[in-house]
Design a protein that fits this description.
The chain is α/β, with parallel strands linked by helices. It has 13 helices and eight strands.
């Protein structure tokens, strides 16, 4: 049975488009030198004064504050939610963050703490971070997180299947996860640090998009390297090409390794120059940020007061 027929028999004749190998022609090889030279050139842009403040303020609005540790407690999640709602106490000019991301069992805690704030609650699922569980277990994980109140689901792809060339399996699992999400948005984590090449990153990006992902995301934050500007550019170009072909806008989330305000501004330049101003919104671009927020707040306070702040002046949660 063909990959297409297998997909249709499993999910119904109108459930999905054809899987990746039939939906897209093979992409051309990624030009590694061109990607890395473009990233380096865009990284030299100088952003100052009002534009810098606007960019850093936008970066705050795009952040998903994340805690994904075995020692997470309801108290820790409440503290993180409080910071997501009001990143800089006493300064209403600093906006709320986009979302908090937690394990499924802590979704109700985050949901209660963020009620009425506009800050979304995201949950990892699908046997995060390895993805090495049977599909029915992964889908149960997703449904439970949504039942508990998650607005967004961050799934991990089966990297073993991806590297083995079983693209239909990767597609099917993403498509089934999208169905299980119901009203929740789906972010598809590629774990680019395990994929080995820009060509595989490009191919995985296209599969994630074709299978129904609302966002594609670099990393779990548990593997190094995580997000890099070059990998992000490859993924942004896949989003651009899909938009030019279909008119459908897909979001992007670099996660892991984005730690400084300067890096955040570099990523925003990449987005603007590759996709345009329409993507400069939390609806279409996010930072997976645990360490980034305080550095951005320090830079905003420096721009406001003219004085560099000490790191201990900001809460660590």
């Amino acid at each position: 049975m063909s990959s297409q027929n297998s997909t249709l028999s499993r999910y119904g004749s109108s459930a999905r488009p054809a899987p990746y190998p039939l939906f897209y022609p093979p992409p051309p090889p990624v030009d590694q030198i061109a990607v890395e030279e473009r990233v380096a050139a865009l990284g030299k842009r100088s952003i100052k004064k009002g534009a810098k403040v606007a960019g850093l303020t936008l970066a705050v609005r795009m952040m998903d504050l994340t805690t994904l540790e075995g020692k997470d407690t309801p108290g820790k999640v409440r503290q993180m939610c409080a910071k997501a709602r009001t990143p800089l106490a006493g300064d209403p000019s600093v906006p709320s963050c986009a979302a908090v991301c937690v394990y499924p069992n802590l979704v109700p805690t985050a949901k209660a703490e963020l009620a009425g704030s506009g800050v979304k609650v995201a949950s990892v699922a699908t046997a995060f971070p390895s993805g090495q569980s049977p599909l029915d277990v992964k889908l149960s994980d997703v449904r439970r997180a949504v039942e508990l109140g998650a607005d967004e689901i961050d799934m991990v792809i089966d990297r073993g299947a991806m590297l083995a060339g079983d693209y239909a399996k990767v597609f099917d699992e993403i498509a089934a996860t999208k169905e299980a999400c119901g009203p929740a948005h789906l972010k598809v984590i590629l774990e680019t640090g395990e994929l080995g090449s820009y060509d595989v990153v490009r191919k995985a990006s296209e599969i994630g998009i074709a299978a129904g992902g609302d966002f594609i995301k670099t990393s779990t934050g548990k593997v190094q390297p995580a997000a890099t500007p070059a990998v992000t550019l490859v993924m942004l170009e896949a989003i651009r090409d899909h938009f030019l072909a279909t008119g459908r806008r897909i979001g992007m989330k670099p996660a892991g390794g984005v730690r400084t305000a300067k890096q955040a501004l570099h990523y925003l330049v990449l987005v603007k120059e590759t996709l345009g101003d329409a993507w400069l919104t939390p609806d279409l671009f996010r930072f997976g940020a645990s360490a980034l927020l305080n550095d951005v707040l320090m830079q905003l306070e420096k721009e406001r007061t003219g004085v560099y702040q000490a790191s201990e002046d900001f809460s660590k949660d």
